[in-house]
Amino acid sequence: MQEFLEYVIKNLVAVPEDVVITPVERGGITVYELRVNPADAARVIGRKGSTINAIRALLVAGSAKQGKRSVLELIEEVDGSEYKNDDTTGSEV
């Protein structure tokens, strides 16, 4: 699933070399932590979160087909602090 995410997101952003996807296991769920260039965060999120929600839906469907559970979190850096954007509202990590 990581290769799928890398393919989709790197083809979506303006600075693909800044895309970093880190898989983290939490309680039987694979959490993919996504970091992108700050200028590309809006592209990944999309209007009203439509783009990131579509990517998440594809990730959930693909993972379920493999018998796994996965989620995608966008980690944004704001003023030197990291924020986890897991519902397009932005919550502090």
Topology:
Blueprint: H1 2-10, E1 20-26, E2 29-35, H2 41-45, H3 50-65, E3 70-78, E4 81-85, E5 91-92
Parallel strand pairs: 2-3
Antiparallel strand pairs: 1-2, 3-4, 4-5
Describe the structure.
The structure is a single chain. By secondary structure, the protein is of the alpha+beta class. The chain has three helices and five strands. It has a single domain (2-92), classed as K homology (KH) domain (GMP Synthetase, Chain A, domain 3), CATH 3.30.300. 15% of the residues are buried. Strand 3 (70-78) and strand 4 (81-85) form a beta hairpin. The protein is globular and about 35 Å long. A five-stranded mixed beta sheet has the order 1-2-3-4-5, with helices on one face.
Short summary:
With 93 residues, the chain is an alpha+beta fold. It has helices spanning 2-10, 41-45, 50-65, and strands spanning 20-26, 29-35, 70-78, 81-85, 91-92. The chain has one domain (2-92): GMP Synthetase, Chain A, domain 3 (2-Layer Sandwich), CATH 3.30.300.
